[in-house]
């Protein structure tokens, strides 16, 4: 589990693609310090398992499913990526519950300055927008952010300078693709209420009359 609080940005050193599986090698400083093979690191919000470590470079396998559901397939040598280690039991929960399991991607449709803040408007599919609510949480490239505005086709977040400068958001332009993960709480609630929606209610006017409600 992650919190969406990015620890640092790393640099892609190599991307190897094959029909069966692929791997990525990333140079880092902070997240590599106590990382072991088998540990999880979120790369632009995608939970990856460390399979090799060489100095300050770690390697992670990337399945075709991950490439098709995220923006990792567009990474190249030299690309900057957001990095976060899995949350430790004694760590601070500064963001929200982020699983690292991407729901899909969105497109940066607008970037505009507003005083010291920067607004990012993200267009997304209906499958993602159904879980986006104003003042709710969303992870954009692994960054825990608060939704400020919502329409049927897009949502907006207002980002403080620190967040922009410490993440790859500051490198984004209109038309760029970003990884999106909805708040998992909404998805669990939807799943749990499905059986209730399918049940036929036994409450009728006769039932209410028989029990003194009419």
Structural summary, described in words:
The protein is an alpha+beta fold. It folds into two domains: 8-85, Elongation Factor Tu (Ef-tu), domain 3; 104-197, Beta Barrel (Elongation Factor Tu (Ef-tu), domain 3), CATH 2.40.30. The chain contains five helices and twelve strands. The strands form two sheets. A six-stranded antiparallel barrel has the order 1-2-5-4-3-6. A six-stranded antiparallel barrel has the order 7-8-11-10-9-12. A hairpin with a 3-residue loop joins β10 (143-150) and β11 (154-159).
What is the CATH top level name of the largest domain? Mainly Beta
Order of helices and strands: EEEEEHEEEHEEEHEHH
CATH architecture identity of the largest domain: Beta Barrel
Total beta strands:
12
Beta-strand content bin: 35-45%
Q: Please name the CATH topology of the largest domain.
A: Elongation Factor Tu (Ef-tu), domain 3
Main sheet record: 6 strands, antiparallel, barrel
- Percent in helix: 10-25%
Strand numbers in spatial order across the main sheet = 1-2-5-4-3-6
General shape: globular
pLDDT < 50 stretches:
none
Helix count?
A: 5
Report the structural category.
alpha+beta
Terminal Cα span: 51 Å
Oligomer: single chain
